[in-house]
Amino acid sequence: AASLLTYGIPLAVVMLLATLLLLWLVVPFRLVAGWILLTMLPVAVLGSIVWPALLAYFSHSDAVVQALPLMEGDSNLPVDPAASQKVAEFFHGWLSWNAGMFGAPSGEALSQLGGTLPWYLWPLWPFVLWGMWRWRAGCREAPIAAPLFPLLLMLLASLCNPQTADHQATLTPMVLPMAVLTGMTLPMIRRNLVSVVDWFAVMIFSVASLAVWAYWVAFMSGWPPRMAARAEAALPGFVAHVSVIELIIGLLATGAWVLLVVWRVSRRPRPFWRPMALSSGGMVLTWLLLMTLWLPAGNWRKSYQELVIPTRALFASQPGCVLHAGADAGELALFAYYAGARFVRLPDLRQQDDAPPKPVCPWLLVADDTPGTPINLPDLLGRAKNPSLDGATPAEILAQPWQSLWQRQRPFGKTPHLLGLYRRVPVETPARP
């Protein structure tokens, strides 16, 4: 249930398949397979589907109109006639988000995953690979199979995720089984391999922390000029300022790193966790320096505030729903939170024979990754793969003319990414004679 509500359907399916594989392939688990299949597994499945089932029921029933005031504890509260529609929009949005995580991965998604995975899961994955090689003949033993099967299925789910923005959500659950496997691997690692990992950590993270400090000093002082110019080019318009608290935290973290390296090199400790000390300490040091010295600059460079917050006044001037195409989940969340956008899926707007008329959405938010060209709305909608356009044609969106209010470049990113906001132009109906 927790997997379903936090990370969506893919992780819940992974955990269910991992449980079934353990009950089928691992001998010790077979002894309790009947009891698990009859008691624990049904309870887990039923507990997972309660929340989606309630949403699905209320989204297609007027019962929610009467139930919501009672949930507030006051039967005299005014009834919201659009309550079931709001629940339906939320439910369909949740389904769309889950559906977007299934499918064939794109080249961009695989490239981003390949660049993220080695550093995101460092230093766990080298020890896991080493342990898998040592345990290659006993992978079906219960202590190894219990974390290994979920890990492999999570990795498969990450490879099959076509959305580049959700890789962090799919990689984070992999940390727990990898940590369990690493804990069993550490006592078996040879001293020469430990030394290689340690020196790699010392070199990489020392150079990384030195670069962070050097560019920060250059950006604040203007010297050396070349490094300062590079930093200013990456942050045009940002006004640098020194925070004493953040500077002290960065100095303390750097001092702790130096003491850790001296302790590891001079004392040669024997605890079994010694291979993890320098790698983990280096990751913490790099993260602390970036989150203290460079946090204001990072927030300024990646902030959507100058783009999103002024849009709130536009939405307030003409309330209504917002269609979208091409924008990722993070961008939609920012516009929904800061600008009050109410996104809907296009199929939800189709008229049913026995349904009351629904309002036409006056807004359209689009995103385009085509380099060097402004947004071409008919072309973009024709090739959009966003789940919000499933079952719809561009003609359904372009039935009325749209006015382009702005097209702006995303504040950050290596690839071009234009965001555009359109407003539907009302068509005047000629008066009858």
H and E order: HHHHHHHHHHHHHHHHHHEHEHHEE
Strand order of the largest sheet: 1-2-4-3
Characterize the overall form. Answer: flat
Counted up, domains total 3
Terminal Cα separation, in Å? Answer: 62 Å
> What integer is the average pLDDT?
77
Number of strands: 4
Rg calc? 27 Å
Q: Determine the number of helices (DSSP H or I, runs of at least 4 residues).
A: 21
User: What class do helices, strands and sheet pairing give?
Assistant: mainly alpha
Q: Give the amount of beta strand, in percent.
A: 5-15%
Biggest sheet: strands, sense, closure? 4 strands, mixed
User: Helix share of residues?
Assistant: 55-70%
Low-pLDDT ranges: 63-80, 346-359
Give a quick summary of the entry.
This protein has 433 residues and is mostly helical. It has helices at residues 2-7, 9-25, 27-30, 33-59, 63-71, 83-99, 107-120, 124-134, 142-159, 167-171, 175-185, 191-221, 225-234, 244-267, 274-292, 295-302, 305-308, 311-317, 329-338, 377-383, 394-397; strands at residues 322-325, 363-368, 402-409, 418-424. The protein folds into three domains: 1-187, no CATH class; 191-300, no CATH class; 305-424, D-Maltodextrin-Binding Protein, domain 2, CATH 3.40.190.
